[in-house]
Amino acid sequence: MSLASPIDSKLEGVVWKRTLKEPVLSYPTLAGEECADIVVVGAGFCGLNAALAAAKAGQKVILLEAGIVGSGASGRNGGYNVPQFPGGITPGVVEAAIGTKKGQALSELVLGGADAVFRQIERYQINCSAVQHGWVQPAHSEASLAKVKKVFEAWKAWGADVTWLSAADLSARLGAAGYVAGWFNPTGGTVNPYGLTIGLGRVAVQEGVRIFEKSPVDGIEEGPGGVTVKAGVGRVRAKRVIVATNAYTGDFLPQVQRATLPVYLYHAATRPLRAELRASILPGGECFTDLRKSGGFGRLDDAGRLISGGAVFAFGDKQAYGIAHARKRMRQLFPQLTEADAAFEDYWEGYCAITESYLPHVQRLGKEVFAVVGFSTRGVNLAQNLGRVVGEFAAGTRSLDDVPVAVIDERRDVPLWALKVRAARLVFPLYQAKDRLGLS
């Protein structure tokens, strides 16, 4: 994958494809001229939910995907459905960034979003190995403890059903070593993210959305008669366009591509753990993500595979480096693992779109052309729920002011974007050092 053309429809090495339970559906390639009320570009979590919401509101919707449904970040992430902003961001920080009204609405969306995802999965009977046994944010150092405590207290004051956990509580609940304290939200959990995107595609079609795969958009033109979206020899005329491509935008819309930093991440999955290990590692089925810069998170899939990962270090043998780090991290977290237990069978890579504020925003690219970008590792929850809200806006059932993120009317590139993209490929050892020194 390259940033100029990041689409990888094969999803090689992605464990979620190998363990898929939803039937894969094939969709045609756009070849002629079509008309719609709304065109959505990008068949990931955000785009699928936007298309679904608009179609349910009575709109004629066409969804264009450059690869196949779920082949971007939505199909290859870790599958953590987290009811929290990235890292140590609190509702108060969000209100300071985007204003009280929108900040409170976005916090409500995030707090209730994990549960909303699971309820939608149930409603549409999407077979994506969904497990809602809660999510934990543990503190691995004194520096992180202050941040984690602040986040917990903010949500507690908000009225959220959250619980503080001692070191002993965490050890019993996670089976992990080295955590000093943390907090728990019972609405979080895990999914097979590729299975979820495949299921959302099926549901969208049932609601009337027309999906076209292998139809990369290479032009969007707006005129008095509406918007024309070009994809090779195909054309779609519409009233409104929603671009939901995030880190998989490619070069065709540089103002969207450069509005976020596309961080290159990897995940790896062990073979299914032995029965005695499954009894001591995440025995209650919870998942967790800590504040380590070099990756501190854990979950099991339904076969008992342990998932790890971090940022790709694109120097030398990047896969070997990533696997070695993942093995070391898992054995640090779970000392009961032997070297053989921490052997990884699956390894895959992908991009994640990070904004400078770690909050998503809407870009206005034209009078009726909008892009939604920057879910910053919270796609399973936030991309889906914000996608639904944006779909309702596209359909005219809510105003742009009711979309609870900043709306940016001018091009706003990340400063020194090209340099930061290159630096991000080499910064992982620095993250590891900061974690070792207790600075994260």
TrEMBL record:
<keyword id="KW-0560">Oxidoreductase</keyword>
<feature type="domain" description="FAD dependent oxidoreductase">
    <location>
        <begin position="37"/>
        <end position="391"/>
    </location>
</feature>
<protein>
    <submittedName>
        <fullName>Glycine/D-amino acid oxidase-like deaminating enzyme</fullName>
    </submittedName>
</protein>
<dbReference type="Pfam" id="PF01266">
    <property type="entry name" value="DAO"/>
</dbReference>
<dbReference type="InterPro" id="IPR006076">
    <property type="entry name" value="FAD-dep_OxRdtase"/>
</dbReference>
<dbReference type="InterPro" id="IPR036188">
    <property type="entry name" value="FAD/NAD-bd_sf"/>
</dbReference>
